[in-house]
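Consider today's protein:

***
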Amino acid sequence: MLKTRENRRYQILCNVVLALLTIFMVFPFALLFMSSITEENTLIMNGYSLFPRKLSLEAYKYIFQNGQKIFHAYGVTIFVTVAGTCINLWMSSMLAFGLSRKNLPFRRVITFYVFFTMLFNGGLVPTYMMYTGTFHIKNTIFAMIVPNLLMSAVNVLLVRTYFTNSIPEALYEAAEIDGAGQMRIYFQVALPLGKPILVTTGLFAALGYWNDWTNGLYYVNQEQFWGIQNLLNKMISDVQALTSGLMSKEMAGMIATMPSVSVRMAIAFVAMLPILAVYPFLQKYFAEGIAMGAVKG
């Protein structure tokens, strides 16, 4: 009876702590959204609040005045995210599968080489010269996919560790006895059993592609190839320029009515909304993939 009471108290304490943590994590997103729909003058006079005195959708109206550009940028970002994530998973998982096989020659050397890339890189200027001068990806859709995000050493090591610790070597040996080659083992044994870690690393890659704006900044100066982050960053720059007082008198009316503070909140909310919508469906794989992929092997 005493143990039952202690267990109940422990469960209540855990639930309270988790509820508080949930509130702390949800609060910034709720405050961001409410600030984005708060009337500009109210927001300036009273500050940020979950219960604003006056609501307004002027910030979203300003963003969607150029709705065609917004939807085009969303299309570019969705394509880049899906294509880049698929290629990232394919390349990372194939390399990880090879490194997980104990009979691979120079396995330790290759693993160290992959790990070494986590510590050092070639620098921005040589990287820019290589991608623009050698691969000629500037002002192409490949500029949004290839540089810095195509394969992650962290993902490779996570997937390799998962394959090593979670898939028994006996399964590989049984497949080889049945006549399966390495590619068949990879597709029919490793990938199906590695679903949790692949979803986890795929989420990392997708977040990297969705939130990336540096590739568009460095390698793209044509608006047709801009993703949503680049377009929204340009909108923020325009708002800052309009409100800086450096514009002509003809812009005075626009400046006076522009929701310069709330529009930044709206831009941030628009950029993160799709990720917030997708993440709950992938959460069940996230904890298992991280726990199994982080075990030292």
Observations:
- Residues 2-36 form the longest helix (35 residues).
- The two ends are 43 Å apart (CA to CA).
- Confidence is low (pLDDT under 50) at residues 293-297.
- The CA atoms of residues 242 and 250 lie 11 Å apart.
